[in-house]
Amino acid sequence: MNNRMFDVVIVGGGISGSALTYILSKYTDVKSIAILEKYGSLAPLNSNARANSQTLHCGDIETNYSLEKAIIVKRQANMLVNYAKTVDKNDFLYKYPKMILAVGDDECARLEQRHHQFAEAFPYMELWDAERIAEVEPAVAYKNGKLRPEKILASGCTDEYSAVNYGNLSRSFIHHARDNGTEIQVSLSSEVKKIQRFDDHYELTTPQGTFMAQFIVVSAGAHSLLLANQLGHGLDLSILPMAGSFYYIPKTLNGKVYTMQNDKLPFAALHGDPDLVELSKTRLGPTALVLPKLERYTGGTYWDFWKSLKLDRKVVRVFWDLMKDRTIRNYIFRNFAFEIPWLRTRMFAKDAQKIIPDLTPADLEYANGIGGLRPQVIDKTHMVLKLGEASINPENENLIFNMTPSPGATTCLGNAYRDAQIVVERLGLNIDKERLVNDLLDGEDLLFFK
Ligand SMILES: Cc1cc2nc3c(=O)[nH]c(=O)nc-3n(C[C@H](O)[C@H](O)[C@H](O)COP(=O)(O)OP(=O)(O)OC[C@H]3O[C@@H](n4cnc5c(N)ncnc54)[C@H](O)[C@@H]3O)c2cc1C
User: Fold this and answer.
1) Which of 31, 203, 414, 425 is the most buried (most CB within 10 A)?
2) Pairing of strands 399-403, 209-218
3) If you write DSSP's letter for every residue of 2-44 in order, what string do you get?
């Protein structure tokens, strides 16, 4: 039995929990931290390199971000780049060419306008015509050996960090958290079943015993809401799990090729990426499918889904509003069809030809076991589907619950900085902001949070 008190217990050993462990150990006087992870390794689910698109989202190739959001995400992404400079072993951050590709007159006009609007914030991005695209990504520019007939334009760069193995980064955070004299206990196979509130502490029940904490941060992905609900928090929220699937083709692209987002479907634009784990393959995707479970490829969690959905009139109303929109409705049905084995490669090939015109269904292999699940949050008070992250931080409690869909891996250090400030304030401890800002934020404490 564990039965000992920690200053901070973090539930979830994904990228969010690992980043917070690092920030607390390096920049605060928190003395002891326990990380409780349900499975037998760090980053087993969404933060694993097989589960996500491995992209460092900087706001430059994500056309669904406003300029303001893009600038904030860029600063958060840059924290990872700065972290990489402080460690001796970098097996997580990589440079690949990247671009947003516009196809057809309308998209090209929109991209050109966006490129100029974003130029000051992203001075390294260049506007590429078909000939330049052909130099960087021949498979994108050519069809049947000739430049493709429709107009194409890209906003891209070749010498920036663009890909991250977030599983390796999680392990790096924990490894380096131990350099700082803080006591760190990583407890694997330790699913938190229950959290209880006492007068001056909390207790967490796990198969490895009971852990006591002065402060708890739950970064358990889609399961964070269930644990919050147990303590009476976040009852006005529901989780809508969106699974993403991918397809493999033999290595065809040299870097990341993103496409223009439809404003109504901001998580939906297809992209092609080099795979950091399967080096001989290019990965295409993701698709987006609502699944009635909270974890993608593990058994069970169906009942957890229903408990966290809390189906009622307000949730039905959100679904109804989504289905009323023709674009969204068609997209949802189309994504169900993507799961039908014979049909899916034919349908997906059609979509993916926007990126690689010569692609045929025979080139595609459904990537079995690849792709995680985004815990999108439904705000029942305002009856809307929230597309970004959600954090529950009840006043007068030493508790934080995080739900982090995309780009939650990119923003892990930014989120950790936010949470660390709350932790030290409530525990009466200190954070060395100046050192953190110098190390990770280029000397400017300019992280804005909504
Ligand atoms: C298809 C797809 C593509 C994506 N692409 C990108 C991308 O390119 N770039 C990007 O920045 N983001 C991307 N994301 C989002 C990114 O993967 C997530 O934001 C990020 O991994 C979330 O990390 P996390 O640590 O919060 O959650 P997770 O990685 O899900 O970790 C939560 C952990 O909590 C554990 N846990 C759950 N319940 C309990 C419990 N009761 N007790 C103990 N432990 C528990 C789980 O086992 C898990 O290890 C993508 C997501 C998907 C699905």
Assistant:
1) 414
2) parallel
3) --EEEEEEEE--SHHHHHHHHHHHHHB---EEEEE-SSSSSS-
- Cβ(54) – ligand 1 distance below 6 Å: yes
Q: In this structure, which residue's CA is closest to atom 33 in ligand 1?
A: 12
**Does the CB atom of residue 52 touch ligand 1 within 6 A?**
yes
**Structure-block tokens of residue 265:** 């479907």
Q: In what order do the strands lie in the sheet with 365-366?
A: 126-128, 152-157, 98-103, 256-259, 271-274, 281-285, 247-250, 365-366
450 confidence band (pLDDT: 50, 70, 90): very low
Query: 44: Cβ below 6 Å to ligand 1?
Result: yes
Q: How far is CA 224 from CA 131, 187, 220, 229, 360, in A?
A: 48, 18, 5, 9, 41
Q: Which of 351, 185, 372, 193 is nearest to 272 (CA)?
A: 351
Domains defined for the chain, CATH in brackets? 4-97+158-440 (3.50.50.60)
pLDDT value for 448: 61
Pocket flag, ligand 1, residue 12 (CB < 6 Å): yes
* Residue position matching structure tokens 């609007």: 117
- Ligand 1 atom with the smallest distance to the CA of 410 is 11
Nearest CA to 404 among 416, 396, 422, 394?
A: 416
What is the residue with the minimal CA distance to atom 9 of ligand 1?
55
Q: What is the pLDDT of residues 152-184, one digit of tens each?
A: 999 999 999 999 999 999 999 999 999 999 999
Q: Is 375 in the pocket of ligand 1 (CB under 6 A)?
A: no
Residue pLDDT, tens place only, 218-259: 999 999 999 999 999 999 999 999 999 999 999 999 999 999
Radius of gyration of the chain (CA): 22
Report the b/e string of 2-15 with b at 16+ CB within 10 A. Answer: beeebbbbbbbbbb
For β-strands 247-250 and 237-243, DSSP reports them as unpaired
Q: Where are the alpha helices (DSSP H) in 94-153?
A: 105-118, 130-136, 138-141
User: By alpha-carbon position, which residue is closest to atom 2 of ligand 1?
Assistant: 52
pTM passes above 0.90 = yes
Task: Please tell me the distance between residue 102's alpha carbon and the centre of ligand 1 in angstroms.
Answer: 30
**What's the N-to-C CA distance of the chain in angstroms?**
41
Helix (H, G, I), strand (E, B) or coil at 371: coil
Q: Please tell me whether residue 315 adopts helix, strand or coil conformation.
A: helix
- Please list, in sequence order, all residues whose beta carbon lies within 8 angstroms of the beta carbon of residue 350, skipping any fewer than 6 positions away: none
CA 400 to chain centre: 18
